[in-house]
Write a structure and sequence with these properties.
Elements: H1 21-35, E1 46-50, H2 54-61, H3 64-69, E2 72-77, E3 89-94, H4 98-108, E4 118-122, H5 128-135, E5 144-149, E6 155-158, E7 161-163, H6 169-174, H7 180-201, E8 205-210, H8 227-245, E9 255-261, H9 276-283, E10 290-295, E11 304-309, H10 315-320, H11 325-342, H12 344-353, H13 360-396, H14 399-410, H15 416-425, H16 431-444, H17 453-461, H18 465-478, H19 524-534, E12 542-544, H20 600-608, E13 615-620, H21 625-638, E14 642-646, H22 652-661
Helix pairs in contact: 7-8, 9-13, 11-12, 11-13, 12-13, 14-16, 16-18, 18-22, 19-21
Length: 676
């Protein structure tokens, strides 16, 4: 079963065919799958049929216009009643499940099949028994134009990020694991989707993972701590098989993958992150990347709601998303001022407002500039509105003071008295914000929640026992405690046997270029990736499925023939080309008004040709905006493309909800015997 007929090699080797991660997913779906599905009549239209998972895969990578450009006239749901179109060919992009194969056979078998010819592309490896099931139907075989494994079952959410679309990962893998088969299936599906990333990119990874620890010498390893180990086993097992099943798949390791879970950093999901992207998702009522705002009615009626998607196709968003909210606001003001000074229509409109007469010649210039003016002013004014709304929320909720306390706690500049004083004096702070503050406090000072201390803090903050259950559930993710609660109704939050430090992070402001207030925080992931890049992951905490052979430190330039598997040494970050307030990694190649003649992603692709080996990071249980930002930052700093994978992208409110649903079972079964 071949991956494809394509001879293009995306991973392991540089050169002119190198493409960024998200582009590869899109191109494989459009060209390797849809364009290749052709019969004798090359101009014939075709039908695309997908299931509920593959339709998500497609929508995360391609637009409808992209699909129709590949001569697809109709997109159908596999499990919906469909009209027979015997004159058209059909492309099936489906998961290799028994139900899907049965539906396909019912479409194409018998005297009157629904379609002329079928081209079947499976999103992941198909079991042999299902292939045999298809072969048994002799009426269908002559009608099959292609039967291939696409090995593409992940969901790109960014040029350097993907999800496996498993929102319930925390509950399924770290909650009440009372159904071993269900656990097995869930983790196996996760491994399949991760493995297809490496199939698409034709990369063979060194698989690092956070290893389990025993709470003491006599007790067995806690099963929750084994989840990254089990996932690493399954991913390596699947990816290593590609060496013999996928043409031109590398035989030696070409990249690094590190698998961790949410316990690696429990502060990042709840602390207020002050970048434009994070603030949008934290403070605004957004659904995914969709933002709804009011626009003036074209008919002169009441304002209408308009939905916009804040993604990489918007050059203003692309430039500002990783900048500090104050920096973003300043730049938007400058951008709008520059735009007005350069655009004839905007100047004419401004002079009309001032009461001065507009000449006929000026009106003609205004009309000529109007189409571009309308589109650009809508883009910029949208972000001016969003930034203004965020700044109002920050003022109205007194968020700066809370944000300062959060970061002071993380960096050891605040203690118990500061938290208690805040809770006493800021009674109007929302329960969610108080809970998030206490979660940070619990991560830095776990001893302050032992015995009945946690109950007293709960009463002071006026939080319900249901809210405080979130904090106790943090313990389940962090690992088992050797200390039991001292009294009924109280809980212990002892994350480890070692005494907790008074700071959860080392202050790195001297090392970085950012000088904005409240921009000190960085996720643990940043130091973890840098350690991996240097080959300095602590062996007490991390293991490797296929330990790379140590080699002399040298250039890490991407080469498909290279036998180097050890992490290359770090390279110095490029000198900032902008003011020292904002790091170079956050800068977009755009003009003053936020637009450029060339695609920003084309410039990125040109940069990636010079990169070293890719680094993949996978977080079980959800990732944050700050962690995705770090991957972009370190790509520039380390000269290695860093790709973030996770089960879901979570905003703080979503993460709190997931922790509330997490509960410890009375007897958690061990996972050592699971066959994945």
């Amino acid at each position: 079963m071949s991956l494809s007929d394509s001879e293009t090699s995306y991973g392991g080797g540089g050169g002119s065919d190198y493409k960024p991660f998200r582009h590869i997913s899109r191109d494989r779906l459009l060209y390797e799958m849809l364009r290749s599905a052709k019969s004798g009549d090359s101009k014939a239209w075709k039908v695309l049929i997908m299931d509920k998972v593959t339709v998500k895969v497609m929508s995360h990578s391609c637009k409808m216009a992209d699909i129709t450009d590949q001569e697809v006239s109709l997109v159908e749901d596999l499990f919906r009643r469909r009209q027979p179109l015997p004159s058209l060919d059909a492309v099936y992009f489906i998961q290799p499940s028994k139900e899907n194969v049965v539906m396909f056979l019912s479409d194409m078998s018998g005297r009157e099949p629904l379609y002329k010819k079928a081209y079947i592309f499976f999103s992941s490896p198909i079991p042999k028994e299902l292939v045999n099931h298809i072969k048994c139907d002799t009426s269908v075989l002559p009608r099959i134009g292609a039967l291939r494994e696409m090995n593409l079952e992940y969901f790109p959410i960014d040029s350097q990020g993907f999800i496996t679309d498993q929102d319930t990962a925390l509950q399924e893998l770290y909650g009440n694991v009372d159904n071993i088969r269900r656990f097995n299936t869930y983790l196996n599906n996760m491994a399949i989707r991760i493995a297809t990333v490496f199939a698409s990119l034709k990369e063979l990874p060194n698989v690092y993972y956070r290893s389990a620890k025993e709470s003491d010498e006599s007790s067995p390893t806690v099963s929750r701590e084994l989840v990254p180990t089990k996932l690493a086993d399954a991913v390596w097992d699947m990816v290593s098989k590609y060496k013999s099943t996928i043409p031109k798949f590398p035989q030696k390791e070409t990249c690094d993958l590190i698998i961790v879970d949410r316990s690696v950093d429990q502060i990042a999901p709840v602390i207020h992150e002050w970048t434009y992207d994070a603030m949008c998702h934290d403070l605004l009522d957004m659904e995914g990347n969709k933002y709804i705002h009011e626009v003036a009615s074209k008919t002169g009626g009441p304002p209408e709601n308009k939905e916009v998607v804040l993604e990489e196709h918007d050059p203003v968003w692309l430039e500002l998303r990783h900048t500090h909210i104050a920096d973003a606001s300043e730049r938007l003001h400058e951008k709008f001022t520059n735009f007005v000074s350069k655009n004839k229509a905007a100047q004419m409109q401004q002079s009309g407002r001032d009461g001065s007469e507009i000449s006929t010649r000026d009106l003609q210039k205004m009309v000529q500039a109007l189409p571009q003016y309308t589109e650009q002013v809508e883009k910029i004014s949208l972000h001016v509105e969003i930034a203004g709304k965020i700044n109002r929320i920050i003022r109205d909720t007194d968020l700066r003071e809370l944000g300062q306390l959060e970061q002071d706690l993380v960096f050891g500049d605040a203690a118990a008295k500061d938290v208690i004083n805040f809770l006493r004096t800021k009674q109007n702070t929302t329960p969610e914000y108080k809970l998030r503050l206490l979660m940070i406090y619990a991560s830095v000072y776990p001893e302050k929640f032992e015995g009945d201390k946690g109950v007293k803090l709960m009463q002071l903050a006026k939080l319900s026992p249901d809210d405080m259950k979130v904090i106790s559930n943090m313990q389940l993710l962090a690992g088992s405690s050797t200390k039991k609660a001292s009294a009924a109704g109280s809980f212990s939050l002892k994350f480890s046997n070692q005494k907790a430090p008074q700071a959860a992070r080392k202050d790195r402001t001297d090392e970085e270029e950012e000088t904005w207030s409240l921009f000190r925080f960085y996720p643990v992931l940043e130091e973890l990736i840098e350690s991996l890049n240097k080959g300095e992951l602590p062996k007490s905490d991390y293991a490797c499925k296929n330990e790379p052979i140590p080699v002399p430190k040298g250039n890490s330039a991407r080469s498909s023939k290279s036998t180097q598997t050890a992490a290359p040494p770090p390279t110095a970050a490029p000198h900032s080309m902008r003011s020292r307030r904002t790091a170079n990694w956050a800068k977009s190649r755009t003009s003053d008004d936020g637009y450029s003649s060339d695609s920003t992603l084309k410039n990125v692709a040109a940069d990636f040709k010079k990169m070293g080996k890719r680094i993949f990071v996978f977080i079980i249980g959800g990732a944050t905006r700050s962690e995705l930002r770090v991957c972009h930052k370190l790509t520039t700093k380390l000269r290695r493309e860093v790709i973030l994978g996770t089960t879901s992208m979570d905003d703080p409110a979503q993460y709190l909800t997931k922790l509330k649903l997490l509960c410890e079972s009375k007897a958690t079964p061990t996972l050592d015997g699971l066959g994945i």
